Amino acid sequence: MAERKKIKKIGVLTSGGDAPGMNAAIRAVVRKAIVNGMDVVGIQKGYQGLLAEEFIEMNSRSVSDSVQKGGTILRTARSEEFATEAGRNKAADICRKHKLEAIVVIGGDGSYRGAQSLSSAGIPVMCLPGTIDLDIACTEYTIGFDTAVNTALQAIDKVRDTSSSHERCSIIEVMGRNAGYIALWCGVASGAEDILLPEKYNYDEQEIINHIIESRKVGKTHHLIINAEGIGHSTSMARRIEAATGMETRATILGYMQRGGSPTCKDRYYASMMGAMASDLLSQGAVNRVISYRHGEFVDFDIDEALAMKKEIPESQYEIARALSR
Ligand code: ADP
User: Fold this and answer.
1) 133 catalytically annotated
2) Is there an atom of ligand 1 within 6 Å of 82 CB?
3) Residue 52 to residue 75: CA distance in whole angstroms
4) 48 Cβ below 6 A of ligand 1
5) Pairing state of beta strands 194-196 and 55-58?
């Protein structure tokens, strides 16, 4: 086997939606890279900052006091320019100019596709799953999901209390873009009566209305519906449900509060392990890999292979969620 070229200098960026734990990942990438003898440049504001050459030299102190903080110290952005062929070629030229031999990308599915295009333009990449949505197929864990579901759950519990007191129906909309993982976990954990997931919802509101009427008959004092962002329309749904059932119905859209806040221990720990693994792989010359968590272990996949994978909400878990909500 040909000997792999030793990588001496890498860049690290966070891209797309921010997620709690991204800082722990950046910190681990930087500190482990330094231990492994590599130089690290922090690229601010994702691919947009790469195109604008918003670079900062990173040392161990650059990531001090960040592990416990939400958001991302490197900041993040979405870039339309980068998504074009001209944009990605320009980004690759900038990497070559600054002698960046590989870029660590911490982000979601869109950022992974951006990384894949950067690698096809000749710049090796290493990806870490940074998204609260848990919607990256190759991994059972994504950085930020644990914090986001716990943050959402605290809010849901509070709304549940007041729903019971007032004998209301509450529709609480949680994030997740087109994926229903946040809704599923929060729905089960909050004891919701209905959990609406984009992957499973049949848009039959009459079913929900019948469920509310039945629940009232068996003595339930409130009716909690967890709705996923991918379904949306919680406010108009609330109006229709109230009109059909006569039960006062309120919609609460949790929104961006789910993306902020200090990361949980799990998010800090997993992000630290994944960040360190990224720098270790790069220092061994492995590139175009994505770090994942599968079957209780941190593993890595080829980026093309990872992006071709599909992931679905396990039917058995969805069935359990439904059974428990009756
Ligand atoms: P996330 O990474 O959280 O899924 P986005 O989907 O917004 O967030 O992606 C972040 C950035 O990644 C985009 O602004 C764009 O620059 C880049 N990107 C997304 N999709 C692609 C793609 N198919 N090809 C190239 N770049 C992409």
Assistant:
1) yes
2) yes
3) 14
4) no
5) unpaired
- What gap in Å lies between CA 301 and CA 79, rounded to an integer? 26
> How far does Cα 97 stand from its chain's mean position?
32
| Residue 3 maps to a domain | no
Give the CA count within 13 Å in the CB-facing half-sphere of 324: 17
For the chain, the first-to-last Cα distance in angstroms comes to 59
Residues 160 and 300 in one domain: no
> Mean pLDDT of residues grouped by 10 in the chain (326 residues)?
77 97 98 98 98 98 97 96 97 98 98 98 98 98 98 97 92 97 98 96 95 90 95 98 96 97 98 98 97 98 98 96 91
Strand partners, 290: 127, 301
Residue 314 inside a domain? The answer is: no
**246: which residues sit within 8 A by CB, 6+ positions away?**
none
Q: Looking at ligand 1, which atom is closest to the CA of residue 117?
A: 25
Question: Is the separation of the CB atoms in 4 and 35 below 8 Å?
Answer: no
Q: Report CA-CA distances (Å) from 56 to 130, 287, 311.
A: 21, 23, 36
According to the model, what pLDDT value does residue 4 have?
Answer: 67
Residue 53: inside a domain, yes or no? Answer: yes
Is the residue at 27 inside a domain?
yes
Ligand 1: does its nearest atom lie under 6 Å from the Cβ of 133? no
- Within this chain, do residues 117 and 163 fall inside the same structural domain, yes or no? no
Cα R_g (the chain), whole angstroms = 22
